[in-house]
C-alpha cells in the first residue's frame, strides 16, 4: 500500500516538475530580469542597505528587517544543507549550477512577487496586514478563483515543506549524533513552536531577527573552514559542476552527472525549495512590513534570495563537490542520501564539524517551521476565514509532534509537488502584472523615500470564507 502511494506521488511529481514547469519558472526569472533592467544590481547595491534601515513611520506590522528575517527563516532551512546534497545525489554535481542560476535570476522574480504583495495588500479590522499572491490575483487581476487555489496549495504545503521535513531533519541529526529518540524531539519542537506562533507575526519576527543572523553566520564559517581545507579542489569542483550541468559524465567519488535534464530538474527544483523565488511564499511576510512604498520592500525581500542561494547554497555545493573529489573513498551508496553526504563533508573539521552541522540543521529547520507557520496561517485565513486559525495551529503543532516517525521520502515528494502547484498561480500573477510591476518600479526606484499614499483597503475577515464567496 505504501509503495503504491509513494509511486503515485512520485509519478505526479515527475509530471509537475517536467520541462513545462522548468521552462515556466526559469523563463519567468529570465523574463523579469530583462523586463526590470537587471534589478539584481539594485538589490545588491541598495536592497541590502535598506534591509537594515528602519521605516517606523510607514504602515505595517513589523520592520523591513523583521519581514526579511521571517522570510529568510522560512527559506534558509534544510534545503540549503540536505536539499543541496539531495540535488547532487539525484541530478549530479551539475545540479549545483542550476540551483545557483535559479537564485541569481530568481532575485528578479522575488522582487516582482514581493512588490505586488505589498501593492495589493489589505488590512483587517484589528490592524493585521494581509498580502501575497492570493490578494494580487484577486485585486490586481480579478482572479479570486486562482488566488483561492494558491491559498489552498500554500496551506497544505506548510505542513510539508514548512513543518514535517524540517522536524524530521532535526530528529534525524539528534538521533545520529546524540541518540535522542525521535518522539522526544517531536514533542519538544511542537512545544517550542506553539510558544512562538501563538504570538503571531510580531512574535515570530522577534525570534527570527535574533536567530537568522546567528545561524547563517555560524554555518557560513563552517563552510569557509572546509573550503580552506579543500582549497586545491575548489577549481576542479567548479569545473566539474559546470561541465556536468550540461553533459553526462562521472566525477570523483562515484558521482555521475545525468546530463542537462537531470541537472536542471533537480537543480531548479531544489533551488525553488531553497530560495522559494516564484513560489509566492516569502511575499506573504513582505506584505506585513512597515514600508513607505512597494519598491522599497521588494528590494529588501529580494536580498533574501541573494543570501539564501547565491551565497549559502553555492557554498554548500562547493563544499560537497570538493569533498567528494578530495575523498574518492566516498562511494555512490554513501551519497545517495543528501544528509549523509553533508555529514561526511563536515566531519573533515575535527571535533567541531559535527557540532556545527548539528546546530546549523537544528536552527535552520526550526526557523523554517516558524516562518512557514505564518505563511500557512495567512493562506488558510484567506480561504477559510480567521475562525479556523486555532484549528490550523493545533494541526500544525500536531504534525510537528509526529513528523519524526513519518516516512521522509514521501514527505519530500509531496512537498516538492505542492511547491510546484503553489508556484503556478503565483507565476501567472507575476507575468500578467509585469507591466504594472515595471510601472511601479519606474515610479519609485530613483526615489525610494517617496511615500505611496494609496490607502490600504480594510476587510472584514470575520465574514464568510473566500471559498464560499467564489
TrEMBL record:
Protein's UniProt name: Sodium:alanine symporter family protein
Annotated keywords: Cell membrane, Membrane, Symport, Transmembrane, Transmembrane helix, Transport
Cell compartments where the protein resides: Cell membrane
Domain of life: Bacteria
Lineage: Bacteria, Bacillati, Bacillota, Clostridia, Lachnospirales
Membrane topology: Multi-pass membrane protein
Organism: Ohessyouella blattaphilus
Alphabetized InterPro entries for the sequence: Na/Ala_symport
Coiled coil stretches, renumbered: none
Regions that span the bilayer: 16-38, 145-174, 180-199, 211-231, 237-263, 306-325, 351-374, 394-414, 420-438
Family statement drawn from the similarity comment of this UniProt entry: Belongs to the alanine or glycine:cation symporter (AGCS) (TC 2.A.25) family.
Amino acid at each position: 500500500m505504501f509503495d503504491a502511494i509513494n509511486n503515485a506521488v512520485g509519478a505526479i511529481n515527475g509530471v509537475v516538475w517536467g520541462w513545462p514547469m522548468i521552462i515556466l519558472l526559469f523563463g519567468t526569472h529570465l523574463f523579469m530580469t530583462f523586463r526590470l533592467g537587471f534589478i539584481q544590481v539594485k538589490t545588491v547595491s541598495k536592497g541590502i542597505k535598506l534591509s537594515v534601515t528602519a521605516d517606523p513611520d510607514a504602515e505595517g506590522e513589523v520592520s523591513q528587517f523583521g519581514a526579511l528575517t521571517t522570510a529568510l527563516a522560512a527559506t534558509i532551512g534544510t534545503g540549503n544543507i540536505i536539499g543541496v546534497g539531495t540535488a547532487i545525489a539525484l541530478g549530479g554535481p551539475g545540479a549545483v549550477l542550476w540551483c545557483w542560476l535559479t537564485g541569481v535570476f530568481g532575485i528578479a522574480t522575488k522582487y516582482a512577487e514581493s512588490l505586488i504583495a505589498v501593492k495589493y495588500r489589505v488590512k483587517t479590522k484589528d490592524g493585521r496586514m494581509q498580502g501575497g499572491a492570493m490578494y494580487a490575483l484577486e485585486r490586481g487581476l480579478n482572479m479570486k478563483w486562482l488566488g483561492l487555489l494558491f491559498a489552498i496549495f500554500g496551506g497544505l504545503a506548510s505542513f510539508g515543506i514548512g513543518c514535517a521535513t524540517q522536524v524530521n531533519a532535526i530528529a534525524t541529526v539528534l538521533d545520529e549524533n546524540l541518540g535522542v529518540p525521535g518522539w522526544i524531539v517531536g514533542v519538544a519542537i511542537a512545544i517550542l513552536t506553539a510558544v512562538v506562533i501563538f504570538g503571531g507575526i510580531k512574535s515570530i519576527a522577534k525570534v527570527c531577527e535574533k536567530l537568522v543572523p546567528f545561524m547563517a553566520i555560524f554555518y557560513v564559517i563552517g563552510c569557509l573552514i572546509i573550503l580552506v581545507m579543500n582549497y586545491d579542489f575548489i577549481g576542479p569542483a567548479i569545473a566539474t559542476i559546470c561541465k556536468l550541468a550540461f553533459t553526462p559524465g562521472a566525477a570523483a567519488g562515484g558521482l555521475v552527472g545525468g546530463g542537462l535534464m537531470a541537472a536542471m530538474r533537480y537543480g531548479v527544483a531544489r533551488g525553488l525549495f531553497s530560495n522559494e523565488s516564484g513560489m509566492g511564499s516569502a511575499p506573504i511576510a513582505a506584505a506585513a512590513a512597515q514600508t513607505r512604498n512597494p519598491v522599497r520592500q521588494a528590494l529588501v525581500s529580494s536580498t533574501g534570495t541573494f543570501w539564501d542561494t547565491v551565497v549559502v547554497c553555492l557554498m554548500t555545493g562547493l563544499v560537497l563537490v570538493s569533498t567528494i573529489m578530495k575523498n574518492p573513498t566516498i562511494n555512490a551508496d554513501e551519497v545517495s542520501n543528501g544528509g549523509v553526504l553533508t555529514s561526511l563533508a563536515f566531519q573533515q573539521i575535527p571535533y567541531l564539524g559535527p557540532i556545527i552541522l548539528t546546530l546549523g540543521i537544528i536552527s535552520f529547520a526550526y526557523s523554517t517551521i516558524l516562518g512557514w507557520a505564518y505563511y500557512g496561517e495567512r493562506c488558510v485565513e484567506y480561504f477559510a476565514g480567521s475562525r479556523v486559525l486555532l484549528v490550523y495551529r493545533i494541526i500544525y503543532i500536531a504534525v510537528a509532534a509526529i513528523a519524526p516517525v513519518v516516512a521522509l521520502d514521501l514527505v519530500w515528494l509531496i512537498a516538492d509537488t505542492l511547491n510546484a502547484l503553489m508556484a503556478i498561480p503565483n507565476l501567472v500573477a507575476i507575468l500578467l502584472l509585469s507591466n504594472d510591476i515595471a510601472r511601479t518600479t519606474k515610479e519609485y526606484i530613483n526615489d525610494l523615500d517617496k511615500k505611496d499614499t494609496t490607502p490600504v483597503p480594510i476587510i472584514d475577515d470575520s465574514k464568510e470564507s473566500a471559498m464560499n464567496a467564489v
